[in-house]
Amino acid sequence: MCTQSYHFDLTRHFFASPEAEREHRASYEAALQNLEALKGAIAVSADGLLYALQLHDRLQVQFLRHFIYLYLRCTIDTTDQASARACAEMDAEFTGRTAFLQRELQQIDEQTITVFIKHNPALASYRFAIESAWRYRPHTLGLEKEELLSTAFPFVADWPYEL
């Protein structure tokens, strides 16, 4: 029988304190606003599309650092309802505020992507992500409905955290 228990050093791998995590959210929020500023113009040019996809990649790293930190805090201490709530709200907000990217990727056709990749070969590394977005075309609601649905997410899907 193993008597060792797991230990997560949150201060080493994530943030020094909950206050430090909240302070770091400012840069995350700025990156999120930068991505949102591109709404409606993702597929205008190859360079613009590449910029948006790279920005989204960096934003996901920032989001996941905060999300995992909050998730681990409420998992380690199940009475930490503030972290649980912040985790669920942050997840819903990120999903809602970035939903437009998936929608705009779905609207790009194969011919446009081929032309864009010829213009900027760095986009080739994102071909799989773009094609993955295309697979969801038949199952995607309009942007307003997708954003509304993702905003309701913490209230609908919060129960697994409690379980």
Structural class: mainly alpha
Q: How many whole angstroms does the radius of gyration measure?
A: 19 Å
Largest sheet: none
Please tally the β strands and state the result: 0
> Which architecture per CATH?
Up-down Bundle
Helical stretch tally? 9
Query: Alpha-carbon distance between the termini?
Result: 26 Å
Contiguous uncertain segments of 5+ residues: none
User: Could you name the CATH class?
Assistant: Mainly Alpha
Description of the molecule:
The radius of gyration is 19 Å and the shape is elongated. The two termini are 26 Å apart. The chain is mainly α and 163 residues long. It has a single domain, classed as Butyryl-CoA Dehydrogenase, subunit A, domain 3 (Up-down Bundle). It has helices at 10-13, 18-36, 46-76, 81-106, 110-119, 127-135, 143-151, 153-157, 159-162.
Q: What's the arrangement of secondary structure elements?
A:
Elements: H1 10-13, H2 18-36, H3 46-76, H4 81-106, H5 110-119, H6 127-135, H7 143-151, H8 153-157, H9 159-162
Short description:
The chain is mainly α. It has helices at 10-13, 18-36, 46-76, 81-106, 110-119, 127-135, 143-151, 153-157, 159-162.
